[in-house]
Known about the structure:
Blueprint (H helix, E strand, L loop, with lengths): L4 E5 L7 H10 L4 E7 L16 E4 L2 E4 L3 H12 L5 E8 L5 H4 L3 H10 L5 E6 L20 H14 L10 E6 L11 E3 L8 E5 L4 E5 L1 H7 L9 H6 L3 E6 L9 H8 L1 H8 L1
Parallel strand pairs: 1-2, 1-5, 2-4, 5-6, 6-7, 8-11
Antiparallel strand pairs: 3-4, 7-11, 9-10
Helix pairs in contact: 1-5, 2-4
Amino acid sequence: MSEPRILVTNDDGIESPGFRALYEALEEVGDPVAVAPYSNQSAVGRARSFEATVHEYDLGYAVEGTPVDCVIAGIEALCPDADMVVAGCNKGANLGSYVMGRSGTVSAAVEATFFDVPAIAVSQYVPTTADEEFENLTPPKETYGDACEAAAYLVDHASESDVFDRADYLNVNAPAPDDAPERPPMTVTEPSPLYAMSAEFDGETLRLEDEVWQRMQTGNIPDEEGTDRRAVVDGEISVSPLTAPHTVERHERLDELAAAYAGDRATQL
Length: 269
């Protein structure tokens, strides 16, 4: 069996250490081609452009656009023979249901599923200290080792084990790096339902904060066993098998409301 052709993208930008670490890990199990943002596109979700400039790059292509742009351009034009899309490795974890839609890394994987191309989003949890600003951190390439090794393992084994017969894409998150010689254990999870956004307004400035990150660093989180965030806090690699949005939950009461819509207007006239 020939090596899989892997379209590699991210949202931190093609020059990020995490992207280089992932690309090199995937070289061990396939034929990777970079189609990644020219600059940082973190937290843009599934935003797309109408046109974007493409630059040739030593690993493939750098696109002046979003992660979704990269996936569309890659599958449709730049790497049309892609067998799989792998997005990452993201600086910072992508955990919890409410994070899925805003993450450019996860959104790239979601976009691939609409082309019926299996995908993996991979992220590395990077804790901060009280005197560190996450945006200013530039972890070295070695920081991403556990996440990238897990991604390469899944790429190497997922097709033969029919993983993507049941899931459209996998969301992979590695715990904080440590010096242990053995791999962290891997566990299958579901996205945590815990929502932890807060907002403060001082009359002039609005400050939005995701409070979950401070709680993760202390381990003080209410997430249950089996959730992605609990796994990462417990030192495990989280793998969530997910389907592309959106699921449909049809029920009788909504059917009744829809059926009565036209008649409701008639009674108001």
